[in-house]
Automatic annotation (TrEMBL):
Species, as recorded: Marinobacter pelagius
Keyword presence, Acetylation: no
InterPro entries per UniProt: MFS_4 (IPR010645), MFS_trans_sf (IPR036259)
Entry keywords, A to Z: Membrane, Transmembrane, Transmembrane helix
Residues annotated as transmembrane: 12-34, 54-73, 85-109, 115-134, 143-166, 172-191, 212-232, 252-271, 283-300, 306-325, 337-358, 370-390
Protein's name according to its UniProt entry: Predicted arabinose efflux permease, MFS family
Any one Gene Ontology cellular component term annotated for this protein: plasma membrane
Length: 401
């Protein structure tokens, strides 16, 4: 078995970079480029703000389906086949959405894109985590999410940089074209990883199945559900909220999403380091608290200050929630691997789908977008509460022995 000292730093860097690139593609150039695009697409007359929320919901439904499929197809040999297929679906659907202004198709295409996104977001980090565990380097697994932060910044630059000379469906072209070479390179690198197709327990026996839900994992799942619903509102509607609250020409109209992106870039490294210093579980609780304050400030302090603080605090925390929860889950159930990751992402995906749907209902009932952010505050408080009921993995396993 490879060890920490036998794996060259260059190889570690190459694998983490490939994982970061595929997450950049499906998240930055697929899922979250929709957030800075949304105000422009509304201004272009493609759809209303409420319809835009519905389109986001369809995309998140696809993400949920993709994550659920990843629970079923969780073996290493299956991931090697499905990862490049999912990336190909992302590229094809992103190219397809450049060709239509029809609302029905605009809803259907992101649904398929979401399926691909959900599978990649499960399969790529899970594959890399298993590879790193074999090399005693699981502690650096969170760095793969660096690609999401870079993707957010890149998506912001692509949208604002082409805003004056693209219109409607054409606004998707930069993301579509850039996705092609990046998806190809990342897929080729990751499917070559040397990982056994079977998982073994401490006695060397092949592990086929262990329970996903028990007294340790249920609070973690509930906490993660709160995180998914809590962060998705600002990550979907922050630029639109800025457009509603700020005067024309204000720097935060585009700047809010740039701030989120800039804060997201170092977030994976920061929370990876915080988790390694104080422990993943205390770090997760701190992460929830900061993120909750970020959404709350947008509600209680409308305007440029609230938007700025929300951008900073949410942008610097939401990736940390993901990487810390994934590591805690695997530490509680070390033989679950990709299956556990898929179940968590599926739950996260469901709550993310609920967020835009609730926002659409709220807006159509006469509510305001800023008051809808209160849903996120409540969800993050829910997540923080249950994070205190998750046991430390080492204590949990000592009780079983």
């Amino acid at each position: 078995m490879p060890t920490q000292t036998s794996t060259p730093p260059k190889e570690l860097f190459s694998v983490l970079t490939a994982g970061a690139v595929v997450l950049l593609v499906v998240h930055g150039l697929g899922r979250f480029i929709y957030t800075p695009l949304l105000p422009y697409l509304v201004d272009d007359g493609q759809f209303s703000a409420a319809d835009g929320a519905a389109v986001a919901t369809w995309n998140y439904l696809g993400y949920l389906i993709g994550a659920m499929l990843a629970i079923w197809w969780h073996r290493i040999d299956q991931i090697r086949t499905l990862l490049p297929v999912s990336l190909a679906v992302h590229v094809i659907t992103t190219l397809a959405i450049t060709q239509t202004d029809n609302l029905t198709l605009i809803s259907a295409i992101p649904t398929l894109n979401g399926v691909a996104n959900g599978m990649v977001f499960v399969h790529a980090p899970a594959l890399i985590l298993e590879w790193l565990v074999l090399r005693n380097r699981a502690s650096i697994s969170g760095l793969v999410y660096f690609g999401v932060g870079v993707g957010l910044l890149l998506s912001s630059g692509l949208v604002t940089g082409t805003a004056d000379w693209l219109q409607g469906a054409q606004r998707w072209w930069p993301a579509a074209l850039l996705s092609i070479p990046l998806a190809w390179w990342g897929a080729v690198r990751l499917i070559r990883l040397d990982i056994p197709s079977s998982t073994h327990d401490d006695s060397g026996k092949v592990v086929t199945s262990t329970p996903l839900l028990d007294r340790a994992s249920i609070p973690l799942f509930l906490s993660y559900a709160g995180a998914g619903l809590g962060y998705i509102l600002p990550m979907t509607f922050l630029p639109l909220l800025a457009k509603i609250e700020l005067p024309s020409g204000h720097w935060l109209l585009d700047g809010a999403w740039v701030i989120v992106a800039l804060c997201t870039i170092p977030a994976a490294w920061i929370w990876n380091r915080v988790g390694g210093t104080i422990g993943d579980l205390p770090a997760l609780r701190l992460n929830f608290l900061i993120q909750l304050l970020g959404v709350l400030v947008a509600v209680v302090w409308p305007g440029d200050v609230g938007l700025f603080l929300c951008s900073v605090l949410v942008g610097s925390t939401f990736l940390g929630t993901v990487l810390l929860t994934q590591r805690i889950g695997r530490a509680l159930h070390p033989h679950q691997g990709p299956r556990l990751s898929a179940a968590m992402v599926a739950l996260y995906g469901f709550t993310q789908m609920v967020g835009p749907w609730l926002t659409k209902q709220w807006l159509e009932a006469g509510g305001t977008l800023v008051s809808a952010f209160g849903i996120g505050v409540g969800a993050l408080a829910f997540g923080l509460f249950f994070a205190f009921f998750v046991p430390r993995p080492e204590l949990w396993h000592s009780r079983e022995s």
